[in-house]
Specification:
mainly alpha; three-stranded antiparallel sheet; 3 strands; 9% strand
């Protein structure tokens, strides 16, 4: 005795009609579709797992880079605060501006295409 079941709405066999035998065994009437569906679900699960690992790796690397840049910034600020150039620029602002202008003109003249 073979009876037809209604279309299922679950993940496996969604939208397919199953055949139920008198011994309680359910067979799909679309075995190739079911195999393809299982294969695609497996592929999507693997892709999601790979994407999760990649995201974790990127977040970790970004965090490490941010910490490294913050440490470099603190070191540069510390060096600048104790720098002789900073002290000279504070004590002689007009002379420092003149030196900066002269250096800019020199660089411009060297890089200018003739």
């Amino acid at each position: 005795m073979v009876t037809q079941a209604k279309a299922t709405t679950g993940v496996k066999g969604a939208g397919t009609t199953d055949t139920t035998h008198s011994n309680g065994v359910t067979e799909s009437t679309h075995p190739m579709t079911d195999k393809l569906q299982d294969s695609l679900h497996s592929s999507v699960d693997k892709l999601a797992s790979s994407a999760a690992r990649a995201e974790e790796n990127i977040r970790s690397t970004a965090s490490d880079s941010a910490e490294n840049m913050a440490a470099r910034k603190r070191l540069a600020e510390k060096k600048w605060l104790t720098s002789g150039v900073r002290k000279y620029a504070i004590e002689n602002p007009v002379a420092a501006a003149g030196v900066a202008f002269a250096a800019g003109m020199l660089v411009t003249s060297l890089l200018r295409k003739k």
